[in-house]
User: Fold ATP-binding cassette domain-containing protein from Brevibacillus nitrificans.
Amino acid sequence: MIKLSNVSKSFQTKKGTIQAIDDVSLEVKKGEIFGVIGYSGAGKSTLIRCVNLLEAPTFGSVVIKDKEVTNLPAEELLQVRRKIGMIFQGFHLLKTANVYDNIAIPLRLTEVDKEELDKRVTKYLKIVGLEDKHDAYPGQLSGGQKQRVAIARALAQEPEILLSDEATSALDPETTESILELLLKINKELGITIMLITHEMNVIQKICDRVAVMENGKVIEQGRTVDIYARA
Ligand code: ADP
Ligand code: ADP
Assistant:
């Protein structure tokens, strides 16, 4: 589903060149939950931004669903990006829009008609367990509920891949647990492939089939979670 081959990304700064990712190769298979773990500064965000096509690698190849996406023209890039949903540590909800609109606004930028849009908002709010919160504003929701809205917003685009950038890092342990269970359900029941980045080992142990460990821009270890860490 996602294949990175010899991907490197460097940034030029006043202090010189920063090698954020250094020769990373990994493959995320269709239907699995793949985790990337590492300390702050390891290069996880930069890596996931290369998958989300927000960042272009300096070297190497990124293949998504059998399509090489480095150097794609803008129009085709947009097509591939539609297959990818993303959630973040900070939720990224619009404070001045209610839950319904937070999910609907990005859909209005696509070809989805009003009827289908309504259907999707209702369907995905139900899947995340917030069907009674259509009219609430983000400020009235807990952190876990905000993340559920963000997940519904990502799912409403009906992506094949869901990327998660530290989605549970701002949440308490019980809320983290419930969001991880939701991600498992999305993976199993909707068949969505998930790639997540985290600095928390328990996130990997609870839901990831396979894991890559990053340090200083490099993947230092990669394999099945059960082989790398004992299950929690
Ligand atoms: P992580 O997500 O694991 O914390 P990042 O990918 O955010 O790691 O960062 C990896 C390294 O690349 C860090 O040293 C960071 O400061 C640097 N970096 C990330 N983005 C940029 C950028 N846009 N410009 C310069 N340096 C960057
Ligand atoms: P996250 O919360 O996902 O880890 P960061 O706070 O690391 O994100 O980065 C947010 C933005 O800042 C990203 O666009 C990243 O590329 C950029 N960035 C990160 N580190 C640096 C840096 N040292 N210099 C410049 N930009 C950076």
Notes: The chain has a mean pLDDT of 95.
